[in-house]
Amino acid sequence: MNDLAFLPLADVAARIRERSLSSSDYVRACLERIERLDPKLNAFLSVDADAALCAAQDADEAIRDGARSGPLHGIPIALKDLIDVAGTVTTAHSAILKNNVKNEDAFVVTALRNAGALLAGKTALHEFATGGPSFDLPWPPARNPWNVACHPGGSSSGSAVAVAAGLVPGAIGTDTAGSVRHPATACGVVGLKPTYGAVSRRGIFPLSFSLDHVGPLARTVEDCALLYRALAVWDRDDPSCIPHPKTATGDLKSGVRGLRLGVIEEFGRDASAEIQAAFQAALKVYESLGATLVPLELPPLAEFTGCGRLILQAESFAVHENWLRDDVTAYASRTRTRLLPGAFIDAATYIRAQQKRTQLAAAFTAAMSGLDAALCVSSLELPCVIDDPAEIARSYDRQARTPFNITGHPALSVPIGVSATSLPMGLQVVGHAFDEERILRVAWAYEQTAAWDRSDAFKAMRANLDFLNN
Amino acid sequence: MSNEERERTRVALIAADLGLDRLPESERTWIESAVATQQTLAKSWRSDVPPTTEMALLFRVPRDTETDA
Question: Collapsing DSSP states into helix, strand and coil, what is residue B56?
Answer without folding.
Answer: coil
